[in-house]
Specification:
The chain starts with 17 loop residues before the first strand and ends with a strand. It is globular and about 45 Å long. By secondary structure, the chain is mainly beta. The chain has one domain: YVTN repeat-like/Quinoprotein amine dehydrogenase (Methylamine Dehydrogenase, Chain H).
């Protein structure tokens, strides 16, 4: 497969290294987070930065996973790994530094958010998590910072540690 330069688009608006990126289900937009704590949006059709968020406001609604057709799912984020954004604003504790949460992932059923942080914790929140001070369940197993967390299709959660060089596999049960 050949890729021509017409197919490439360089988005260079961040002031630091890009750490996370998510597409909308319809692949019209991307949201990105960087090391400097920025949340930026890209309109892929126009190949430009979105500066008016009203165009993507509806993408913050919850997706109907039981919808039969892709059109019913079109206006939603296909993934959520960005640590900043409307649906994950409640994961931040008062006084937290924007670099304290290293990774996050929303489970395939769009019910839970898992975060990986600098304190060696994996935390699970309800999705969306929009209120400050939202409650979480803490999963303790790493002895240093947690670098990544990802959900599997069957409610299994995998986290990867930094200095402890471990991978934890969590079997999450709903209450």
């Amino acid at each position: 497969m050949m890729i021509s330069t017409d197919d490439l688009y360089v988005f260079d608006k961040h002031s630091s290294a890009v750490l996370h990126a998510d597409f909308t289900f319809d692949s019209q937009y991307i949201q990105t987070n960087c090391q400097a704590g920025e949340l930026l949006f890209v309109d892929l059709e126009r190949r430009s930065q979105l500066t008016s968020l009203s165009k993507i406001a509806n993408y913050n609604n919850l997706i109907d996973l039981d919808a039969e057709d892709d059109a019913s799912k079109a206006a939603f984020w296909d993934s959520q790994t960005c640590v900043f954004g409307w649906s994950v604003q409640g994961i931040w504790t008062p006084g937290a530094d924007y670099s304290d949460i290293n990774a996050l992932d929303v489970d395939p059923k769009k019910k839970y958010i898992a975060t990986a942080d600098d304190n060696g914790l994996v935390k699970i929140y309800r999705y969306p998590c929009v209120q400050s001070g939202s409650k979480s369940v803490e999963c303790i197993g790493h002895s240093s910072h947690v670098t990544c967390v990802r959900w599997c299709i069957d409610n299994t959660l995998i986290s990867v540690g930094g200095n402890d060089r471990t991978m934890c596999i969590w079997d999450i049960e709903e209450r």
